[in-house]
Amino acid sequence: MARYLIGIDLGTTNSALAYLDLQRPRRGERLDIKSFPLLQLTAAGEVKERPLLPSFLYLPGQHDLPPGATALPWDAQRDYVVGEFARSHGGKVPGRLVSSAKSWLCHSGVDRSAGLLPWTAPPDVPRISPIEASARYLRHMVESWNYVMAKDRPDDRLEKQTVVLTVPASFDDMARNLTVEAARKAGLEDLILLEEPQAAFYCWQATHSAKEATALKPGMRCLVIDVGGGTSDFSLIEVVEQQGELGFVRQAVGDHLLLGGDNMDLALAKFVE
Fold this sequence. Notes:
Layout: E1 4-9, E2 14-21, E3 34-35, E4 38-43, E5 46-50, E6 53-54, E7 56-58, E8 81-82, H1 84-90, E9 97-99, H2 101-105, H3 130-149, E10 162-167, H4 173-185, E11 191-195, H5 196-206, H6 210-213, E12 221-227, E13 232-242, E14 245-253, H7 261-272
Parallel strand pairs: 1-10, 10-11
Antiparallel strand pairs: 1-2, 2-3, 2-6, 4-5, 7-8, 7-9, 12-13, 13-14
């Protein structure tokens, strides 16, 4: 049996990993869910832990960075950058920066398995698919976990744990399947997809006491609004009674909106211009 239950939020702007140790005795009503700090490059040749992994990928040029600048503790030959340094350095060379890959995963007007990104890349820059970009973010999280948590404990490798991966509620079947494909490329097999607004609702439930949760009564409806970096999600969840206990049923999901923090940033920049 897997020791850990892993939760991964593969976000448009930032990604995160949390975990629950199933072998640790539960204390009180609340689950002891921990956020996992992710090792990543924060500057050339400098690796530090950060609570989030910025969902940015930088493809260096031949003479762009000094030798060894992209090395990681578990891969000295890594030839691309994911995370904080990718975001900061890529802002100076946008033609080599992959961003908002998640938004491309749900873009039905393009071949999402084709090399599209960076969208504004010059001809000499190799492009990767939105699926591959997403897989690299996930692979980085897998590698960071394995380096810290499973270096001498192969059974604790992330690939051997149960992983809950969140997706926008408004993702269609194709976008969900492509997300699963990216996870498989990163080595994740024991996978459960969970809609992001439902994950937020379950988090509220898990982090509040039973007394606070009793404010919910059968027949009540809860509207969960999730405004992310690339999408806005609206889910209507109904409280029901199931065998004497409260249960929750997702009743409706808003239309898919490619509207989020990225769009707000662009609107503000346009206004300032």
